[in-house]
Amino acid sequence: MKWAKSWYLSDVILIALIGIFFGAIFMGTNYVYDVLTAALAPVGLAGLANELLLGLWCMPGMLAGYLLRLKGSATLGELLAATVEMFFGGQWGISTLISGVLQGFGSELGYIATRYKHYDWLGLTASAITTTLVTFAWDLAKNGYFKLQFWLLVLYFIVRFISMFFFGGVLTKLITDLLDRSHVLKSTHNN
Amino acid sequence: MNPSIKLLLLLVIALEISFTMIISLNVALVVLAIIYLGLHGTKLKTLAWLLVVPLLPAIGLWSTQYINGSGDKTLMAWVLFTRIYAFVFTGATFTLTTNILQLADALEQNWHLPSKFAYGVLAAYNLVPKIQHEVKVIRAAGLMRGQQLSFWSPQLYFKAILVSINWSQNLAQAMASHGFVEDAPRTHYRHSAVHARDWIILGLGIIGMQIGVFVIPWH
């Protein structure tokens, strides 16, 4: 467990707190998902609600990876958010944990591909791409996407990437810019 | 049963039903989960609520396959419909009978998860009510200045992260001041053990799952 050595107790608490905070904020968005699903289900496009909002749900991982810059922070951040969501009775039961690990690891891959050096648009874009790919592969099986018609798969994939890029990329960048300007980030890893 | 072994078994089941298309297996898992929950004294109201929670996504998945699927649309639609119920009910056998403290103990003592992860996450988890309150405070504070903070506002997340940084340092210092030393060996007040019984249940569960998938013809 070499990677665990670089983590301090305060990092673990921080990443868990962020996961729970985001979870608490997301709970206020459930109505968006419910309304969209109900509206799109009659035409067989209910998955779009999931695709549109997935970037939001993957944000804790991407943000944690960007914020803490430690190996495993994206994976752990998303996993913790998912664990908390499962204990609070999310709509996906036990599969929440598997999705959480995969979403987190998907984000992590983007930072791995850029060698944990690019905490800028390049790293965030890479992370958005890898998260889209990994989560989509999982949904081919879990949500039966492999049985869908091809045009719908392409549509879902594009919408999912846009969502990832908007929430995981643009919004994360805006948030971290605010953090940079407030100079709180450096102090987080020196105690 | 040891929480970590139980979770492992449930994850194996979840992974396996994600890759199989047997409606009756999903239903069987839901029935088994309901029996298990019933034996553990889960209230009927809670069980009824579990039926309602995944209904909307389940209908969404069903209609997507039914309208825009390919091949045997009806089969796949019902597979996905029952699959999400299987996820939720098997998940509930864990979340309704085990708390996160027991899980953290098991992961730390039986699987050598570094204690800073186990206790760090617990420290944060116990702040959940305070966190929910704080989100309301942040929103209210925004409204007082005429700022509507919605879920796409960077400001909302920024403020949440500032609070998180603050609290995480306070908590870490509080724990250190009460004698918590990172990476130091610990003694335990609550003991968590993996018994032979746990391994047997895990083995039987996994074998039973394979019989359900490959041996029993479900039609």
TrEMBL record, chain A:
Entry's transmembrane regions: 12-33, 39-67, 79-101, 121-138, 150-171
Alphabetically ordered keywords of this record: Membrane, Transmembrane, Transmembrane helix
InterPro entries for this protein: ABC_thiamin-permease_prd
This protein's record includes keyword Membrane: yes
Name of the protein in question: ECF transporter S component
TrEMBL record, chain B:
Localization per Swiss-Prot or TrEMBL: Membrane
Main location: membrane
Keyword Amino-acid biosynthesis: no
InterPro entries listed in its UniProt record: ABC/ECF_trnsptr_transmembrane
Keywords associated with the record: Membrane, Transmembrane, Transmembrane helix
Keyword Transmembrane: yes
Annotated membrane topology: Multi-pass membrane protein
Pfam families documented for this protein: CbiQ (PF02361)
Signal sequence range: none
Residue ranges of the TM segments: 6-39, 46-63, 75-96, 199-218
Name of the protein in question: Energy-coupling factor transporter transmembrane component T family protein
